[in-house]
Amino acid sequence: MTAQLCPNCDHAALTQASSGILLCGNCGARIVQGRLQCPACQSINKLGVEMCAACGEPLTIVGRVLSRQGLQTRSQRLEQMRFRTGAIKEEERLSSDARMSGFVEIDRRRIEAEHESLLAQQALDKRLFRNVAIGLGLFLLFVAIVSLVIIL
Question: What is the per-residue pLDDT across 12-37, written as a single tens digit (0 to 9) for each?
């Protein structure tokens, strides 16, 4: 254990984890070669900064408490969301394209099924028309024969 104070919480609980890395037993801060490591993205930041330069995560205890309690200012949250907008838009575009491809495939199958159903119905209609025509022809032939028999 060293006599150094934690730059994050001013507690004298720093321990040497490995060469150049100090850990605070009180707040969990990692000091790597005299700089504070972000707990979220592992980026190295200058001592004394409130927010991580890479991801915007609060680095101090006060910042973490305020962040957890929802007391972070709107501009900080807005900045964090702006940081992610490009990735979110790209994810949404890819998801939208995938959904649209699914809809197009469903529509293609529906049109194909309707076409097959139409062809089957046309075949049934042809057979029905042929059978009706044959039946009508036979009926007329029968009526003609019966008429001839009656007349003679």
Answer: 778 887 777 888 877 777 788 878 88
Residue 29 burial by Cβ neighbours in a 10 Å radius (0-12, 13-18, 19+): buried
| DSSP codes joined into one string, 73-106 | -HHHHHHHHHHHHHHHHHHHHHHHHHHHHHHHHH
Tell me the H-state helices in the chain. Answer: 61-68, 74-151
pLDDT in tens, 108-129: 999 999 999 999 999 999 999 9
CA atoms of 45 and 60, how far apart (whole Å): 12
Return the sign of the alpha-carbon dihedral for residues 92, 98, 102, 104: positive
Looking at residue 51, what DSSP letter applies? B
Would you state the torsion angle of the CA atoms of residues 101, 105, 111, 117, taken in this order, to the nearest 10 degrees? -170
Beta bridge partners of 36: 31, 45
Q: Alpha-carbon distance 33 to 46, whole Å? A: 10
What pTM was estimated for this model as a whole? 0.38
Compute the distance between CA of residue 42 and CA of residue 57 in angstroms, rounded to an integer: 11
